[in-house]
Specification:
With 665 residues, the protein is mostly beta strands. Helices cover 3% and strands 43% of the residues.
Length: 665
């Protein structure tokens, strides 16, 4: 990170630019040093992955502008830089967004007021470009109406609820590159084969008007069908087009760019005559300067899987070699080193009290090649896995049963870090493990959950993960009654979860002591975006305590089975909810209500200083079956559509609200 400041004579504006999702510099325009005294105080209060956010002290009204994903940064304020961050209230001034630029006018301050830009979501080494925001000669398709209970469409499942479609020869998507990059990730959709199973097609990449390379796209892992078929009970996961209406439209594939691209280059994705798919739908593009492969651990501290017969270049199964290396490493107290290459796994692999180190998620791949319960199982004391890509070559629906990572209890002090996981059933499924960390991972297109802590999993930290396009909950804490005790004291912070095709972006279901903060949740398809979900079909322990604060929930909600679920869908369907605080969350552009209380069991929740902006229907809706009480303090509901109210209680006296300082009477 680098910071710079310079003094100019005009305009009262404080600008910052977010580069690759991380704050990179501030430009301070100061009309009078005597009247306008900003201070950049490095190393104060807030640091993530070595990134420290600067503090601004202002003595008059100013405009703050930043370039990044809308609402990925939020200003907070305090009269003391030594005050804990949780005590810095969020500035609720509306953010104006034009293209990639976000701005707001800070309220008047005095010499004792400080501002801090606080991150929402994961800090990542790539930038994401939404296709619909750039130059297109094809068609832009966007969600324009509220979905019905039977709506399944590519635009509903797309990030930003919109995409670009190229159908004719010569159609293109073009954008000016803003960072040097040697890799590109396409979130795309090409047609399925007529009888299912997917197909492959090429698409041309041009740089500065000259064709650079041909990209091969596939639809093997997307395109599932929902009504009939043997897998219809699994959220419509049938591979046969005769099974009913289609969903799961988006796949993601990654490529190294031949010779890389530079900042300022013009990139074009174009359908040439040789690119023969009937259509190419493009949702988003990630660009990244992938680092070179990591070096091995220090000499004498590791065992190399190649010494046990694994070969990252021969396309043969490496399961036995990797297992033998793991056994030897445990016996000798050494690290398992997986050098650059692609390794294949057709049986489950257990990481028992050892560390597995790859050369990086762009360089060391472990590909599962068989259906059934195949996974990487972690167990014992301090099992750790770092810097891998984990994929699957055969799984195309949930019931095929291949997981990324599972946990075998007892297991403590475990770590899964900097791992990219895709095309599996569930990516990381933690049953009962304690004191673990999931950090810096990427999860793409799964058929079930991304990261799930369940059945007593406790004191775990899930942070800085980026999840997109998964087939059930993106982040989940479940306190299943089938567990010996409830899950407790877990933390989910600074994660990004986008464009689920099923399930919730974040699900809190039972237990106590959980903290969910500073996450960026957007564009769910068929459930609530954030939920407290306590359904009778999956009995849970009561939820007896938790804090949900400073999250951004964008374009959330759904019309699953006609329920018109809110972006925050809080369902006490089978047991009670108590001692939960929702504080300083921003809920923007929800499809239906911003906050939606449902379920007949008692719920007692406090809502404080939340901002509910541009809801599709009510700001807050309490369904008729709801029981309990709620405390509402200084919440803001704004930009409602005509005919809708800020607060609607259909439960009457069965739900008692206590109100203070809110935007409604």
């Amino acid at each position: 990170m680098r910071f710079g400041a310079k003094v100019l004579k005009k305009s009262a504006k404080v600008q910052c630019e977010a580069e690759s999702g991380a704050l990179s510099w501030f430009l301070l325009n100061i009309p009078s040093l005597n009247r306008w005294l900003p201070r950049l105080l490095a190393g104060i209060a807030f640091s993530v992955f070595g990134q420290t956010n600067p503090v601004l002290q202002l003595d008059q009204t100013g405009a703050l502008t930043w370039t990044a994903t809308p609402h990925s940064w939020m200003p907070i304020a305090s009269s003391s830089v030594s005050s804990p961050l949780a005590n810095w209230p969020v500035v609720t001034t509306p953010v104006a967004t034009v293209g990639d630029s976000n701005s707001l006018v800070l309220p008047p301050t005095n010499n004792s007021q400080f501002y801090l830009l606080e991150r929402r979501g994961a800090t990542v080494p790539f930038i994401t470009l939404e296709a619909e925001a750039h130059r297109v000669s094809g068609q832009i398709v966007a969600l324009t109406n509220s979905p019905t209970s039977t709506t399944w469409s590519p635009e509903l499942e797309a990030s930003g609820r919109a995409f670009v479609q190229l159908t004719n020869t010569g159609h293109f998507l073009e954008f000016s590159n803003v960072v040097a990059a040697n890799t590109i990730v396409l979130r795309h959709c090409i047609p399925d084969a007529p009888t299912g199973g997917g197909l492959a097609a090429s698409l041309s990449l041009y740089v500065n008007g000259i064709k650079r390379q041909t990209l091969t796209l596939t639809s093997t892992n997307n395109w599932l069908y929902q009504t009939n078929g043997v897998n219809s009970s699994e959220n419509g996961q049938d591979n046969d087009p005769a099974g009913g209406p289609a969903h799961v439209f988006w796949n993601e594939e990654r490529y190294f760019i031949t010779n890389g691209v530079q900042q300022g280059d013009t990139l074009r994705l174009q359908k040439d005559a040789a690119d023969t798919a009937a259509f190419y739908r493009i949702d988003s593009i990630d660009l990244e300067q992938a680092p070179p492969p990591l070096s091995p651990p220090p000499a004498g501290t590791y065992l190399n899987v190649t010494s046990y017969g694994a070969n990252g270049a021969d396309n043969l199964d490496d399961s036995t070699a990797i297992k033998n290396c793991l056994i030897a490493a445990k016996a000798q107290g050494k690290i398992v080193w997986m050098p650059p290459g692609t390794y294949y796994q057709n049986t489950s692999i257990t990481v028992d009290s050892v560390t597995v180190q790859g050369a990086g998620m762009w360089h060391t791949s472990l590909i599962q090649t068989a259906e059934g319960t195949r996974n990487i199982a972690i167990k014992g004391n301090a099992p750790k896995v770092y810097d891998l890509f984990v994929g699957n070559s055969v799984t195309t629906y949930r019931a095929s049963g291949v997981y990324g990572f599972t946990l075998t209890s007892p297991c403590t002090n475990w770590v899964i870090e900097n791992v990219w996981i895709t095309h599996v059933s569930a990516a990381i499924w933690i049953t009962g493990g304690s004191d673990g960390v999931v950090r810096g991972c990427r999860v793409r297109l799964t058929y079930a959950d991304a990261i799930n802590l369940n059945k007593g999993a406790s004191r775990c930290l899930v942070e800085q993960n980026h999840v997109r396009g998964v087939g059930d909950d993106g982040l989940a804490i479940l306190a299943d009654l089938s567990g010996a005790f409830p899950s407790t004291n877990n933390i989910l912070r600074n994660n990004t979860v986008m464009a689920n095709w099923w399930g919730h972006n974040c699900d809190l279901a039972g237990g106590s002591g959980h903290i969910i903060e500073n996450n960026y949740l957007a564009d769910n398809s068929h459930a609530g975006c954030f939920t407290i979900n306590l359904p009778s079909a999956y009995p849970m322990y009561p939820l007896t305590g938790g804090v949900v604060r400073r999250n951004t929930i964008l374009r959330g909600g759904s019309n699953f089975v006609g329920q018109k679920r809110g972006a925050l869908w809080l369902s006490a369907g089978s047991t009670t909810v108590s001692n939960v605080l929702f504080q300083e969350n921003f809920v923007l552009d929800s499809l239906f209500p911003a906050i939606h209380l449902v379920g007949s069991h008692n719920q007692m929740i406090t809502f404080e200083r939340n901002v509910l902006d541009a809801s599709g229907t009510e700001g807050i809706r309490v369904n008729s079956e709801v029981n309990g009480s709620g405390t509402f303090i200084s919440n803001i509901v704004r930009n409602l559509k005509p005919g809708f109210t800020q607060y609607t209680n259909l439960a009457g006296g069965d739900y008692q609200g206590t109100f203070s300082g809110n935007s409604w009477p």
